[in-house]
Amino acid sequence: MNRVYLDYNATTPVEPEVLEAMLPYFGGEFGNAASIHTPGQRARAAVETAREQVAALIGARAQEIVFTSGGTESDNHAIFGILAQPILAARSGEIGKHVITTAIEHEAVLNACEALEKEGVAISYLKVDREGRIDLEELRHSLRPETVLITMMHANNELGTLQPLEEVGRIAEECEIYFHSDAVQSAGKVTIDVNELQVDLLSLSGHKFYAPKGIGALYIRGGTRLRQLLYGGHHQRGFRPGTENVAGIVGLGKAAEVAHKLLKEDARRVSALRDKLQQGLLQRVPQSRVNGGASPRTPNTTNIIFPGVEGEALLIALDLKGLACSTGAACSSGAVEPSHVLTAIGLPPEEARASLRFSLGRHTTEPEIEFALQVVPAAVAQLRELSPTYQKSAVHG
């Protein structure tokens, strides 16, 4: 069976030139980047080249990039690293610490904030509108004297919605509050300049832009007071001890270089294919609607409601036909809960469960979109025929 993959927000394939760049570091170039002999120094040079490549992707300086195992580690280091600073207790006047985030963050941020709440840190969760965007006035009203951190994703993983980070950055700068952004879903898809966004910390994950899994980065603006979370050697200026994953770092650097070079071209081509898919499904599937479609989005993502079907059932039906996409549902202990993102934008549980995310990528082709436009409407129609609830509502229309 020829398979069509439309789940690039979940993960991406390793780009051939990325793999080619990595291969020597699994073989002859096996030196430890902390060693002072020649093999070690060759590995060190490769790591520092990658640091420059990642920095160039986001408009940073090379010394502001720390390599991590991925987005979750980067998010946790940013959040706990800021909150662990003793200086912040003095800044907050010993009346506790306060963090502002949003209701639609990735679990790497939400669960970190939940852990902080158990330690007595106050957390404000900003609401979002039907498009998945925050209200800047609510942000301003949420600020307190003890607020020490704003942590807000750049692009939402389910909707593709982009938050107004430049405005948030200005507010954070005015109030002298640290600002972290999870840019895992935006890096390599839209232009990022950390200076324009005025972020102090920014998280990246390699497997979202054609690097391998298990490698990521955290941008730490010069002068940011961030406590290390791991203790060991003095690697990466003490921010992240442990022997560097040289092959993974090289892959991340090469992927960042390719993404930087192809960003505009990729965005133009992929957004055209995304729009064709979205418009075609809306035309061919009665009552279907787009979630968050009127807001600025990443060019590759669309999230669509198909009333009258269960998203999990539709996902399985499409997989059997050779099409891979995603639901926003989280499976836990056999129970399927509606997506916290979709309920946060105001969808009732039944509509949240009837939504699918399609995320395209660099290797998506027009024939693949045509294939999706054939199989998705057919699968929805078949499932609706089997649904007494949908049939009854259609009759009483």
Overview of the structural elements:
There is one protein chain. This protein is of the alpha/beta class and 397 residues long. It has 2 domains: 141 residues, Aspartate Aminotransferase, domain 1 (Alpha-Beta Complex), CATH 3.90.1150.10; 244 residues, Aspartate Aminotransferase, domain 2, CATH 3.40.640.10. Helix content is 43%, strand content 15%. It contains 14 helices and 15 strands. A 7-stranded mixed beta sheet has the order 2-8-7-6-5-3-4, sandwiched between helices.
Structural class: alpha/beta
Poorly predicted runs: 87-92
**Fourth-tier CATH superfamily name of the largest domain:** Type I PLP-dependent aspartate aminotransferase-like (Major domain)
The percent range for helix content is 40-55%
Counting DSSP E segments of at least 2 residues, the number of strands comes to: 15
Physical arrangement of strands within the biggest beta sheet:
2-8-7-6-5-3-4
CATH class annotation of the largest domain: Alpha Beta
Total helical segments: 14
User: Which architecture name of the largest domain does CATH use?
Assistant: 3-Layer(aba) Sandwich
Question: What is this structure's SSE topology?
Answer:
Blueprint: E1 4-5, H1 16-22, H2 38-58, E2 65-68, H3 71-83, H4 86-91, E3 98-102, H5 107-118, E4 122-126, H6 136-142, E5 147-151, H7 165-175, E6 178-182, H8 194-197, E7 201-205, E8 216-220, H9 246-284, E9 289-290, E10 301-305, H10 311-321, E11 323-324, E12 326-327, E13 330-332, E14 335-337, H11 340-344, H12 349-352, E15 355-359, H13 366-385, H14 388-396
Parallel strand pairs: 1-11, 3-4, 3-5, 5-6, 6-7
Antiparallel strand pairs: 2-8, 7-8, 9-10, 10-15, 12-15, 13-14
Helix pairs in contact: 1-9, 2-9, 3-5, 9-13, 10-13
